[in-house]
Amino acid sequence: MHSDPSLSTHETRRAAPKKRLLTQQQRADLRRVVGKLLVTLPAFALGITFFLPLAWLLSSSLKTPQQIFDLPPVWIPKPVMWSNYVKALTAGNFGVYFRNTMILAVTTSVGVTLSSTMVAYGFSRIEWPGRDALFFLLLSTMMIPFHVTLIPLYIVFSKIGWIGTYLPLIVPYFTGGTFYIFLLRQFFRTIPQDLTDAAKIDGCSELGILWRIMLPLARPAIAVVVLFRVLGAWGDFTEPLIYVQRMSQFTLSLGLMLFRGQHNTQWELLMAATTAVLAPTLIVFFLAQRTFIEGITFTGLKGA
Amino acid sequence: MKRFIPARLRNMTRWERRRLTTGLMFISPWIVGFLAFKVYPIVASFYYSFTYYDLIGAPQWIGLENYRDLFVDRYFIKSVTNTLYYMVLAVPSGLTVAYLLALLLNRPLYGRSVLRTVFYLPTIVPTVASAMLWLWILNVQFGVLNVALKSLGMTAIPWLAHPRWSKPSLILIHLWYMGNTMIIFLAALQDVPQSLYDAAKVDGAGAWRRLRHITLPITSPSILFNLITGLIGASQTFSLVYVLTNGGPANSTLFYALYLYRNAFQYLRMGYGSAMAWVLFVGIAAVTVLVFRTSGRWVFYSGD
Known about the structure:
The complex is a heterodimer. Chain A is built from 15 helices and no strands. By secondary structure, chain A is mostly helical. The longest helix of chain A has 38 residues. Chain A starts with 10 loop residues before the first helix and ends with a helix. In chain A, 38% of the residues are buried. By secondary structure, chain B is an all-alpha fold. The interface between A and B is large, with 90 and 94 residues.
């Protein structure tokens, strides 16, 4: 770059590019494009590597029981066995598991959104003595390992007869989620004070401000909360494993575990069931990926 | 009675007191949750750790016996060494991969958002689903990875089926999950002021020195953040191991959280499990403090 004669005032230099195949500008553009390609190619090679496991999952889920063991492995199944999905989903009772997971996803996201919004509002838009100290306390609870609270909670839930119901999986979400409170608080702090001051002068209560002014503005942040919780409910494993007992109450994750126990050599069916469990999360992710990535960036770095 | 009220509270104006009440009202869901799902369980688990309790009879006070037993329990010691081995190898290698991916995506290249999505994708796959997928890919006889190795003239690797390979296999799978970490690094990289690079270039600093003396120091807070969350997460690895290997072969993947789970929910040794939970709690706190104390030497805060 240092040798670029672009700043030269000599007549000869200025005339020189005319004899070349490309002008100065074109050469610079070309160099930029080549440079970009040199980064793009290895990056895509890595991207494909990361994507291969998922592609292999999809491919395996559509194979015949013979083709799944073919050597060398085939990527494009022939014939395409869509019936694997029908077989796996009916044999595995997945309709019930899907419904159960949806119930948990919906109730916990409603609960966690309502409570976290209120708490986040109290931690960001109202000035009161001791607020920041309590917020620090809230953040520090993120350090408490899940397993420390697990056993006493199980004991309490078993004493009050909640084991075998969904209550241990739902009720805690109605007291807010630390991570979601943090996320919403960060968002509320970015909303200008003038907006709410005007409403206060008009005699609007804090609850009214939260409901009528903040919630409509916070829609993107609330979308992130709901998204994270819905995907969370889809992936949750440990708590359903501990608290759910009857098969009729199994979630998709537990159901998939069970299915594996029953069909552990029928890989094509297991892969079809796995793809079916995974598909809704992928669809949700693709529909909302911008919201998503902004959400992580926002909490991960611009925080505190 | 009046002197028991702190001076700060007594001297508040009516307006201030009203603010306090409103604030507390808004955060009340969290206060309830904090007391019921954090404070109580922590205190209770400390108490249970000094008892023998099988959920059927009443807890019996046995003093320090659980803690003494831990240190002669060879499965406990095995679980600690397995977990430490995993933490020490998986976390730094994961951070390195995530950082390299972020560096790559921060360069001028084509298709950045597609690649970002692809690298992020694995993190939204439900744990049980990805466990099924990896069981199939790492299958010793028919797994696509071993087939590929054999076709390259190498010998097959027993992956999850051999004590020597099981933990490295889990680390390999862990590397697939670096999307979150990568996004946080990427956000940090995008915040590095271009002017610093320009100045360094004028001074003749090469790519390596720019990375070493500009990029790494400026993004070091995000490295600290990801290091701490990574260590805490790795110390509590459960679902994936439970589904993939359930501790085997030969207890080579008997991780801390898995052994804790077994004690509490399979052997019903609630007291012993609680003692394990507290040792974990203290261990995590110690690691966090240790990392923070050395961070003064390598984490750079720009002061804004």
